[in-house]
DNA sequence: GTCTATGCAAACGTTTTGCAGTGGG
DNA sequence: CCCACTGCAAAACGTTTGCATAGAC
């Protein structure tokens, strides 16, 4: 039986407020502003539960390491700005699935990571 | 001054023989068949040197973690077979750079990871 | 002989786990 | 009053580093 704890509620608030991919430390710090005693292990355990629940997905970003973001955004990919270090979610997909892999390979999923400069840092 | 040691030579032999992306443990095991006393720390140090030299590049694969592959293959991406667990290098690129990111984002680089079933496992 | 590269072990950062105790149901 | 969840500390995992010494030059 699943229990509703203040710790898990805090994590849900964090993701609701900051609706973007976040790392564990960032999540922990934001969560501690709501529940001061929030523990690292609890964050890891709840993130895993939320991923299993389908509330979150885990991203393994080549530059930023492990990030978590809310589900329900549709197919999208990630843009990493090398100036400000933020990760943006870009809707849509520029992959031509016919050219992606040679004959014989059955492509079921894909992930695209873009690197460059975001609009606000480009100015 | 750089010295040519049997350990580094062994690593170069491993990459020459198995010309595909490999993880540290796999590299270590293969290297130990050539130099029995080969140490983990030595592998890490030499992989770093070889990356700095431009002989190897490091890949951060979402499913396989850190991999190393030889340079000089041109632009390509990686296919992960969920059956055999191998990572394949696919030449070419199916990304339409115009559709990849919205206006305002300056895309300098990208990485694509494909997931599915490879030709030999599909049979 | 010099001094870089190695092997070993300890340190490190991140994530996981064991355990006793708190608190949601 | 249970027992799932928490906090804490230890363990686990991949990677890095300090140090004495082997070995390339």
SSE map:
Two copies of one chain form a homodimer.
Chain A (H helix, E strand, L loop, with lengths): L5 H12 L6 H9 L7 H14 L2 E6 L3 E6 L5 E6 L5 E5 L5 H4 L5 E12 L1 H4 L1
Parallel strand pairs in A: 3-5
Antiparallel strand pairs in A: 1-2, 3-4
Helix pairs in contact in A: 1-2
Chain B binds a DNA duplex (25 and 25 nucleotides) through helix 1 and helix 3.
How would you characterize this protein structure?
Chain A is an alpha+beta fold and 123 residues long. Chain A has helices at residues 6-17, 24-32, 40-53, 97-100, 119-122, and strands at residues 56-61, 65-70, 76-81, 87-91, 106-117. Helix content of chain A is 35%, strand content 28%. In chain A, helix 1 (6-17) packs across helix 2 (24-32). Chain A is globular, with a radius of gyration of 17 Å. The N and C termini of chain A lie far apart (52 Å). Chain A binds chain B through residues 59-60, 62-63, 77, 79, 82, 88, 90, 92-102, 104-119, 122, and chain B through 59-60, 62-63, 77, 79, 82, 88, 90, 92-102, 104-119, 122. The structure holds a DNA duplex (25 and 25 nucleotides).
């Amino acid at each position: 039986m699943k229990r509703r704890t203040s710790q898990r509620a805090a994590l849900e608030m964090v993701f609701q407020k900051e609706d973007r991919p976040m790392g564990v430390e960032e999540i922990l710090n934001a969560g501690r502003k709501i529940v001061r005693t929030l523990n690292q292990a609890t964050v890891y355990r709840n993130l895993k539960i939320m991923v299993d629940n389908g509330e979150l997905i885990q991203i393994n970003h080549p530059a930023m390491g492990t990030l978590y973001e809310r589900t329900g955004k549709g197919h999208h990919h990630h843009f990493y700005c090398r100036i400000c270090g933020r990760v943006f979610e870009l809707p849509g997909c520029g992959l031509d699935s016919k050219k992606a892999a040679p004959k014989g390979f059955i492509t079921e999923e894909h992930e695209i990571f873009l690197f460059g400069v975001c609009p606000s840092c480009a100015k």
